[in-house]
Design a protein that fits this description.
Elements (H helix, E strand, L loop, with lengths): L8 E5 L6 H14 L4 E5 L5 H7 L8 H25 L3 E5 L2 H11 L3 H7 L8 E6 L2 H7 L13 H16 L4 E4 L4 H14 L7
Parallel strand pairs: 1-3, 1-4, 2-3, 4-5
Length: about 200
């Protein structure tokens, strides 16, 4: 993997249980093994904004509050971490990005087009991959594990989330990968997507 004047920004999307975190960290290891600096991050972050929405302002939470709060959290995340890292030549692998907000807040009831509008100026990644998995399998995989947003861990709701992710795939915003397979198989496909994308070169 050749060094870049600017780092490479990869986003992994999907419902919890799709393998995002594991795959993101495998990619980080791959980048580092090839002499390239890389960092892992995730959204929503643990910012004051997110903590306030989940805490003091929880009684007022709805799809619109979440969409706007997470968009602000994202903007600060981009300015404080993502762009500075990329400008230093460090690649960034993010576990979720604005696509999550579009999928989840649309599933919560906000108009898809409105959530898209809120996020239309978000900094665009070099590669955004959607890891597809049926909600029932995802929940089975995560049985016994804690969740930062347990209110979303319900099959009917996650089925709606999946539909919105699929819509973004159909609109060319995300590249879909079947995440129901063994993790190493999924990883090899993800790695091939990285190899074939512009901005990073594996040699």
């Amino acid at each position: 993997m050749s060094r870049l004047s600017r780092g490479f920004f990869i986003v992994l999307e999907g419902i919890d249980g799709a393998g995002k975190t594991t795959l993101a960290k495998m990619l980080i290891d791959e980048f580092k093994s090839r002499g390239m600096q890389a960092v892992y991050t995730y959204e929503p972050t643990d910012s004051l904004i997110v903590r306030a929405v989940k805490g003091e302002y929880a009684p007022y939470r709805d799809a619109f509050v979440d969409a706007l709060a997470f968009a602000l959290d994202r903007l600060i995340h981009v300015k404080s971490l993502i762009l500075p890292m990329l400008e230093k030549g460090v690649s960034v692998v993010s576990d979720r990005y604005f696509y999550s907000s579009v999928a989840y807040q649309s599933a919560m009831g906000a108009p898809y087009e409105w959530v898209m509008e809120v996020n239309k100026h978000a900094f665009k990644p070099d590669l955004a991959i959607y890891l597809d998995i049926p909600p029932d399998l995802a929940i089975t995989r995560r049985k016994g594990l804690s969740s930062r947003f347990p209110e979303f861990e319900e099959v009917e709701f996650l089925s709606k989330v999946r539909q919105y992710y699929k819509r973004m795939v159909s609109e060319g915003l995300l590249i879909e990968v079947d995440a129901t397979r063994e993790i190493q198989t999924v990883y090899m496909e993800v790695l091939e997507k990285v190899k074939s994308s512009q901005g990073v070169k594996l040699v």
